[in-house]
Design brief:
Blueprint (H helix, E strand, L loop, with lengths): L11 H12 L10 H11 L8 H15 L1
């Protein structure tokens, strides 16, 4: 039976133990989890407020003037 779980590694020693278990073919470690990418949009939704185009253009002009 294959079961998938997500863990938060707090200490590098725990990661070493998990790698040892992987070498014994007891578990398989994956660096990237598909569920993380699915939730990214939800995590950042509403992080930026909607601004009028004229305000955005004004901010861009100010930034460009600082670099000139």
């Amino acid at each position: 039976m294959l079961q998938t779980i997500t863990i938060d590694v707090i200490n590098d020693k725990a990661l070493d133990l998990l790698r040892d278990l992987e070498h014994l073919n007891l578990i398989r470690l994956r660096e990237d989890t598909p569920s993380k990418t699915k939730n990214t949009r939800r995590n950042y939704k509403g992080a930026m407020t909607q601004q009028p185009v004229s305000e955005i253009e004004s901010q861009i002009r100010e930034l460009r003037d600082e670099w000139s």
